């Protein structure tokens, strides 16, 4: 509240009475009476409030540790439930860690920090050395009034909670984005393997991994794919493999059929499609989100995360958005029984572009 006191005058406000008259306008009503809190009158109440704040901070500490432990030690198996348990543990730990600090800060300010209100004259916008010195002095007053210097247990709990709360968010990022993280796993997918019972024989006698619908693992005949139809495709029998979810995440494919006259195909890819049936990786080359929104009329495939748009009629090249390379294409054909099969693995690394650049650097 602004008053007519000299600039820089900072004194406790008096309750009730007007501070000064403002000519030709109205009287400043001043501040209402500010009652004392129980913690101001009773040292036992203040100690009890301190214990409550410490308890909230300990909850934050335990939650942060629990989130990290859950992320590191809950095994990620082959079912979605295993993934959810690890993710829930991390999310709950992060949420409770931040919530504990927030509640502790609110309770601390309401019960333990100074209960005195101050008023001062507004100052010019430009600050001078004197103003900066005054600001530092006020900060020192605030630190003193918070009572943290004479409450070492409270100070230790606050430091511990603040240090641990961000870890459930930081630990996964450090583990996955560090230079030592092995990105070579993205250079090979399940399409390059043909376990027994999952392949179809090509006319030249070789075997290729059969295409199957996700999630029911149903084989797909070329005759079942009509113009404009859309399929989410996985390697046949992939659910029986070790690390099923990881392998599926890399190998998942979007497949559709476009009139061959509308396809712009380079000579080296003439045999990568079959009668207009094309298949491309669903892993966006921007940051790895699953591309899934298909515009049948334009043949555009959109990523819902950052709106990268790929033209399937033009070898899935980028026509809009932050992605800077086309989606990798899966070479496909039909086997001797009429089922769609993969001729080989992807010829490019699936996923975000920085992985591909790393591969190119290594090759050089």
TrEMBL record:
Pfam families (alphabetical): QcrA_N (PF19297), Rieske (PF00355)
Ranges for domain Rieske: 275-341
Gene Ontology CC, one term: plasma membrane
UniProtKB keywords: 2Fe-2S, Cell membrane, Disulfide bond, Electron transport, Iron, Iron-sulfur, Membrane, Metal-binding, Oxidoreductase, Respiratory chain, Transmembrane, Transmembrane helix, Transport
Function (record text): Iron-sulfur subunit of the cytochrome bc1 complex, an essential component of the respiratory electron transport chain required for ATP synthesis. The bc1 complex catalyzes the oxidation of menaquinol and the reduction of cytochrome c in the respiratory chain. The bc1 complex operates through a Q-cycle mechanism that couples electron transfer to generation of the proton gradient that drives ATP synthesis.
Topology class, membrane: Multi-pass membrane protein
An example Gene Ontology molecular-function term: monooxygenase activity
Lineage: Bacteria, Bacillati, Actinomycetota, Actinomycetes, Micrococcales
Region (Disordered): 1-45
Subcellular location: Cell membrane
Biased composition annotated in UniProt, kind: Basic and acidic residues: 22-45
Protein family per UniProt: Belongs to the Rieske iron-sulfur protein family.
Chief localisation class: membrane
Transmembrane segments: 53-76, 88-108
Oxidoreductase as UniProt keyword: yes
CDD domains listed in its UniProt record: Rieske
Superkingdom as given in the UniProt entry: Bacteria
Protein name (record): Cytochrome bc1 complex Rieske iron-sulfur subunit
